[in-house]
Amino acid sequence: MRLAAGMRLDRSDAEDAVQEAALRAWRKRDARRPDTALRPWFLAIVANQCRETRRARWASVLRFADPPARDDVVQPDAADTAEVVNGLRRLPAAVRLAVVLRFYLDLPFDEVAAVSGCSVEAAKSRVRRGIAALGSALRVSENVT
Amino acid sequence: MSAPDIENVLRTKLRTAIDPVVPDVGAQTRVLRALAGVASGSELPPEQHSRTRQRLGAVLVAAVVVVLVGGALGIGLGLRNRATPGGPQPGTAGHPPVSSPASPSPHVTACDGNSLQARFTDQVGAAGTQGGDIVLRNSGTVTCTLEGYVSLEGLDNGQPVHVDVTHTGQGTLLNNNNGHLPTVQLITLEQGHDVYVAIQYSVVNGGPVPCASVTALLVTPPYGSRSVRMAVPSALTVCGAIDEAPISAHPYFAQ
After folding, report:
1. Dihedral angle of Cα A67, A73, A75, A79, to the nearest 10 degrees
2. Residue B64 and residue B61: Cα distance in Å, rounded?
3. B45 — contact with chain A (CB < 8 Å)?
4. Which of A28, A50, A106, A134 stands 20 to 30 A from B105 (CA)?
C-alpha cells in the first residue's frame, strides 16, 4: 500500500493498484521462482501495476495546482512539501520508484534493484538522479533548517 | 547539508507527503475480500469448485495477502481497529448485515464486465450539474452479485481522459434530499435484470483545470477484472469530480 501511495500519490489509485497487483500476484504465484524473495517479487508487481495505470500527466499536475476538496489526494500544507510532491510527479517512473523504495520504504539498495529490475549500480544512479531532481525542494528545507 | 542530512530531509518530506494518501485498513480489507472472491469464484480451476475447496482457497489467498500486503510492507490488517472499543469492524462499517463476498453461496460469484451491459439514462440537469443512472444489466447466463461502487474511467473518442470520482459521503453533489440515496448492500442480480449506479457531476468550470469531455465510460464492477464500455448519448462535460453512489437495485434519478 505504501509503495502504491508513493507512486500514485492518490489514495484511490493506490488501492486500485494494490488490488490489481494482488490479483496478478495470485495468478502468477506458480511462476515465481523459488529463489526469488517474496517481498521484492510482490513489490515489483505493485510497481508495474502503478506504471501501467494510465493517467493524463498534465491533469495530475494541474489538479495539484488547484487542490480539490477530496481527502484522498495529496494536499500538502507546506510549500516545501508541495514542492517535493510536484517534484515526485515530474520524475520518470523508474526514478520515482527508486526514490520511494529507498527513502520511503527504507529498502536497501539490493532490494531497490531487485524490485526495479536493474543492477545495484543502476539503482544507486536512479536514486542520485532523484535527489538531484528534487534538489530545489531540499534547498527549501536547507533554508528552513 | 551533508548527504546523510539530505537523505533524512527527503525521508521526512516523503513521509509527510505520502502518509496521508496511504490506503487505510478498510482498503486492505477490501483487497482481501476481492481476492477471496476470486479464489472462490470461477477463475479457479474446475476441480476446485467444491464448497470446501472454495473456502480453503479463500483462506489461502487471504493468508498469502496478509503476508504480502501486510507483513511485507509492515502494515497491520485491522487488528488495531478491532481493539478499538466500539469501533467499526473492518469491511462492515455502515453496511447492512448482508452476506460477505468472501463467502458467497457456492454458485453465485461477483458480476464481471463481460457479463454486463451498460447504458446511461437520460441526463437530469439542475443548478449547474448533470446526473443520471448507469444501468447495468446482467446479460450473462448465470446470476451474479454486486456490492459497493463501480470503478469509472473516462474516454474521449476512444482515448483515456482523466476524471476524478468521489463516492457519496466524500462528494457533495449527490445528496439525500429526496430520501432514497442508495447505501452499500449486496445485490444478487439475476439474468436479464438491472441494477443502477447514480452519478452526478458539475458542468460549470470552477477552476483552472479544464473540464473533461467524456464520450464513453469504462465501468468496472467491484471485484471485477473486466470493464464494460458505456457510450453516452451526448458527450458529458465533466468539471471536477464525478460523484458516484453505490450500486442499487433501484434507480435514483428516475424516481
Report:
1. -90
2. 5
3. no
4. A28
- The reply to whether the predicted model has a pTM over 0.80 is no
Q: What stretches of chain B show up as alpha helix (H) in DSSP?
A: 3-18, 25-40, 51-65, 79-82
Name the residue in chain A with its Cα closest to that of B35: A23
B63 part of contact set with chain A, CB < 8 Å: no
Q: From CA B226, how far away is CA B182, in angstroms rounded?
A: 24
CB contact under 8 A, B240 and A68: yes
Q: Which residue has the cell 473516462?
A: B154
Residue with the three cell numbers 467444491:
B50
Report which residue type is found at B214.
V
Instruction: Return d(Cα A31, Cα A52) in angstroms, integer.
Output: 20
Given CB atoms, is A136 within the 8 Å cutoff of chain B? no
Grid coordinates of B73: 510492507
Q: Which residues pair with B195 in a beta bridge?
A: B136
10-residue mean pLDDT series, chain A (145 residues): 82 82 79 75 83 50 43 49 79 89 88 87 90 71 38
Cβ contacts from A onto B, under 8 A: 153
Task: Name residue, grid cell 462528494.
Answer: B171
Q: End-to-end CA distance of chain B, in Å?
A: 64
Q: Which helix (H) or strand (E) segment is B137 a member of? A: strand B129-138
